[in-house]
Each structure stands twice: as C-alpha cells, then as structure tokens.
Amino acid sequence: MNVMNLPIKRVTLFTVKVPVPFERINCPEFSHEPLNRGPTGGWDGEFFANVPFYIVKVEGDGGPAGWADTNRLVNRQDLLSSMGRLIGMTPAQIRSDDMETWGTMPKGLHAASLDWSARMQDVPLWKLFGEKVRDGVLTADWSGHRTPQGAAEMAKKAKAKGFHCLKLKASMEQDTGGIIAAIRDACGPDFHVVIDPNGRWETVEESVRRARIMMDACPTSSQVEDAVYGKLGYEAMKKMREETGIFTIRTVTEEKGVRDCAEYGINGMNLNGRWPVLHRTSKLAHELGIPYWVGSAVESGIGDLTTIHFALTQPAFTLSCELAGHMVREHPMYDRPIVYRDGYSYPPEGPGLGANADEHAIAKYSIADPLVVE
Length: 374
What we know:
Elements: E1 10-16, E2 53-60, E3 62-69, H1 76-86, H2 99-102, H3 107-120, E4 137-142, H4 148-160, E5 165-169, H5 176-187, E6 192-196, H6 204-217, E7 222-225, H7 230-244, E8 247-252, H8 255-264, E9 268-271, H9 275-288, E10 292-294, H10 301-311, E11 321-322, H11 324-328, E12 339-341, E13 344-346, H12 359-365, E14 371-373
Parallel strand pairs: 4-5, 4-11, 5-6, 6-7, 7-8, 8-9, 9-10
Antiparallel strand pairs: 1-2, 1-14, 2-3, 4-13, 12-13
Helix pairs in contact: 4-5, 5-6, 6-7, 8-9
C-alpha cells in the first residue's frame, strides 16, 4: 500500500476556551490591559484568554490523525469554507512551501494536514519543512504588562528554568527603564529583555527617548519590538538604533517587509503568516542576513510544537523564540511535553509533531459541538 496516495477523509474543528491565570500575564496594576484588540482596533478588547480558538483534527480511513491549532482571531468563515478543500488530498499533494495550492489555506488547516502527512509517512514533521540545521530552538519566556518589581520576579523564575531571555509588553504608562534596571539587578546584565509595545509608543521621538532610557539602564540586555506600527515604525526603529544602539525587531508578514527591514537597518524580525509565505520570508531573511523568530499566537502547545519543527530547518531562525501557548495556558493540549535544556526547546521524538492532542482535554475545554466535514 502506497501511503502517499491515501486521501484525507475527515476534518474536525473543535472550539475550545483554555483558561490562563491572569497573574501569569499581567501585574494587578495592569488589569485593564487585555492583550487583545477590540472592535475599534485599539487595545480595548476582551482578555485574550477568554477568546476561543480552534483545534483541528485531520484523518484518513484509519491510521494516525494530524493535529494543529488556529490563531484565536482567525476568521471562522474562512475555516469553514476551507475545510472541504482538504477532503481527498493525499500526502503526495501536501507540501509546506506550495503557494499555488496552499497560499490561501488558513494556517491551522494547513498545519494539521502537514502533521497528518508526516505521520502517514512515519517521519517527524520537520522533514516536511526542509533539512535539519539544529537540534534545539533557542526559546524565551513570555509575559505581559509588568511593574519593575513584577518583571524582576518573572525574570528570576525564567532564569531558574534555564531561559536567557524574557519578552514583555509595554504601554506609555509603564516604566520601561525601571523594568530593565530591575531585571538587570535580579538576573545580571546578560539576561536579555525584549520590550514589545505593540505600536503603543506612537511617535519617533517618544520611541527614541524610551530606548535611550532602556540603554542607560542596561545596554547589553535591551531590545525593542514594534515600538510604532506602519511606515512610521520603520523610521522609529532606524532612529532608535542609530541614536541609542538598541537592538530593534520588527514584525513582518510578507517579503516586502523583510526587504524594508534590510533597508532601514532593523536588527531582527518576528515573522508571521501562512506556511508558504513563511518559507519565502525565511529564505529571504537568510539571504539578507537578518535573524528572526516566528511569533506565538498564544494558543496551545500544539502550535508551539509546529513552530519548533519549522525552526529546526531554518538557518536564520536564531532569535529567542516565543512558545507562549503551552507556557501560560491551564493545559498545553498535548500529551507529551516539550523538553527544555539551558534555554533551548526540543520536540518529543516520533512521527509528526511527536505528540498527539490530548482528547480528554479537548472534551473538557470545548464550548461547542465539533464541526465535521467528510
């Protein structure tokens, strides 16, 4: 029997809501920060853990199932209208870099198909992404909005677990210089801190001022991601780097963004997008010499595992990676853990992701009946 010709027969979508302890994300002083955009596009949405996301299961006739999760903000209608496209697809047709076939497929559906294909072929998922270039992935701990004291406590816990980097959110009201100084005193000057305002610093001048305060507190640890959004954000990053020397990072979703980062001298990137696009932006990042990580949508450990497998094959994927879903959720939603050693993450050994979704956990956290397409 040639498994490469066996088709997908069933796709199931589970709607889940997996709690996150609020104190794991924000200090009490920032109870108004939801980490989720509202209807106006501003940071006034519901607390992100209260927003459901989806877990995808792909199956053939017997044999293993493929698993993935979706971004919590994915368009539900896009998912529903695309599920039927998977029926009849075979492992021979499922590639991670095929833009013509998979370029408009929601990322979670594509990822579940890739996991299924790898399991059918009895190979680890990374083999469908490329040649392996590393065994483990440099990983950062992750949190939300913190006071200086809260940030220092979070950083000490992260360092005790073996991490060398902590990523935090920031708003205009936060004392980012105080945060950097407190973490420096708690963990030393070589423990990296990425401050991500998600565009909240608003102007070039304000961004440069805050970057200078951070660098005065600890020049060896300070990094900034997405101080300002839009074209102005590139100008802000360029000024920050030129005038303060701070390490700058930009979120990018397309090849043009990678080229813009090179033009403006931005130091690193947070890549996002569907898998065929990620192949293209990753290749271009390598060619242009810009290191990056692939951002976490903070859903479940299933998506984190997919990211690890991709990272094992990409030469430029060298910045500390966010794998926040399994770190902060009440349950990681898989049955075998990611292993951490000295700040690096390693997937479980085995075909596909190396772990299965925990179907008991799916049943526990489901908030609606499964949607099935056959």
